[in-house]
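Key result, reporting period 2: structure in, sequence out.
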């Protein structure tokens, strides 16, 4: 895992935004529709705000970018806990997207059960032929998406469902839908985001590869796996 160290949350957002815009632009110049998997959490929100405000934002045609989410909280559409709200209130409010390329996890007020919503999302994820970038905010416990340490969701193999329902999440809200680790690891570029002192223990475990590996330590992009972190988050790993 390569470490990109920045001074603070704002620089982290700007650095990730520059890199993300670069990948999307390059793929579009090659005639492709890039696919980006977004994350929830504070660092992910910062990155999306920075993309919105980036001077090169409009070098990407955001209507030709496919979006998924690494996980979603099982709450009603528009609820403050929804991860997709972070995008709706930042980047998506400023650029044109194509609704047919924005793949949200169905909300809890849709009439579907949690299991049905996860199965529906698994079908969507399984049909995506290439994932260019996965953004993953890391939790204090080393979780990514809704893959928590010590949970069976981590044991999924390549040939099993691409997304799973999660119950009794140790972090509220308790019910979620998550992509599996094999799907996240289809990413060409896998970028782990961490901001603040609260992430320091998790990063020490990730970078020290402490056994048993926390979920964030299991990320592996096909071309690169990068930890974008600020000084505060890295202070125990220096
Ligand atoms: O619950 C979640 O938490 C993490 C990280 O959130 P943070 O606010 O501590 O940065 C996020 O990765 C995940 O997508 C989300 O559902």
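The corresponding designed sequence is given below.
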């Amino acid at each position: 895992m390569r470490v990109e160290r920045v001074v603070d949350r704002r620089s982290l957002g700007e650095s990730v935004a520059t890199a993300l815009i670069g990948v999307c632009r390059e793929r579009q110049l090659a005639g492709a529709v890039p696919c980006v998997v977004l994350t929830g959490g504070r660092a992910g929100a910062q990155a999306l705000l920075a993309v919105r405000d980036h001077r090169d934002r409009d070098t990407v045609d955001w209507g030709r970018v496919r979006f998924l989410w690494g996980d979603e909280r099982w709450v009603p559409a528009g609820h403050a806990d929804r991860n997709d709200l972070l995008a709706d209130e930042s980047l998506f409010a400023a650029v044109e997207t194509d609704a047919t390329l924005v793949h949200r996890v169905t909300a809890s007020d849709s009439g579907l059960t949690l299991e049905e919503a996860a199965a529906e999302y698994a079908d969507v994820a399984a049909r995506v032929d290439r994932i260019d970038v996965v953004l993953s905010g890391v939790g204090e416990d080393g979780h990514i998406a809704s893959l928590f340490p010590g949970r069976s969701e981590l044991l999924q193999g390549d040939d099993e469902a691409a997304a799973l329902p999660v119950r009794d999440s140790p972090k509220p809200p308790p019910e979620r839908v998550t992509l599996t680790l094999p799907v996240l690891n289809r990413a060409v570029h896998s970028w782990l985001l961490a901001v603040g002192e609260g992430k320091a223990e998790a990063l020490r475990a990730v970078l020290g590869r402490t056994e048993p590996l926390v979920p964030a330590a299991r990320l592996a992009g096909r071309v690169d796996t990068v930890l974008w972190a600020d000084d505060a988050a890295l202070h125990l790993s220096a």
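The CA atoms of residues 42 and 116 lie 28 Å apart. The longest strand covers residues 187-194. This case is discussed further under Risks and Mitigation.
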